[in-house]
Design a protein that fits this description.
Distance between the termini: 24 Å
CATH architecture: Beta Barrel
Number of helices: 2
Number of domains: 1
Structural class: mainly beta
Length: about 150
């Protein structure tokens, strides 16, 4: 099913999230437990006039950068680690110059979960190949989120 045909609230639940990187190096996989839930009425009221959010949650990630793991694990309703808006799931905290945020674009939904592609948004940071001035592309790849997980 195309993700736009589905109301985002139907994606609430627990998932095993697997991300596979395809650039700048391929084959690197990360995983974690993703939790998505509707916002409570108090959080919705506080968000009026702010960015639209369909679901919020967090990711208990395995491995990776400790700062990024802490950001995506945030269960603070004002700065949640995961925000679903339409067919885009943001992991991490946007709006900071050196923030590492993963933006997951959902391209398909099924009863067992959803999947698509992702890209990292490193803020203003530029990564170069060690020992050279060659700028590396931002990390990107594909993902799947399976209901129930472990």
């Amino acid at each position: 099913m195309h993700p736009i045909a589905l109301h985002p609230a139907l994606l609430a639940g627990d998932y095993e999230l697997i991300q596979v990187q395809s650039q700048p190096t391929s084959g690197v996989a990360t995983s974690g437990r993703l939790h998505l839930a509707p916002m409570d009425s108090a959080t919705k009221a506080g968000a009026v006039g702010g960015p639209a959010r369909d679901l919020v949650g967090w990711l208990d990630a395995e491995g990776g950068d400790p700062e990024w793991r802490a950001a995506v694990a945030s269960q603070d309703p004002k700065r949640p680690g995961a925000v679903l808006t339409g067919q885009h799931l943001r992991l991490g905290h946007a709006g900071q110059p050196d923030a590492l945020v993963h933006v997951l674009t959902i391209t398909a939904v099924a009863p067992e979960g959803f999947w698509g592609w992702w890209r990292a948004d490193p803020g203003v940071a530029v990564k170069t190949e060690p020992g050279t001035d060659r700028v590396l592309p931002d990390p990107a790849g594909y993902f799947c989120a399976l209901r129930g997980g472990r």
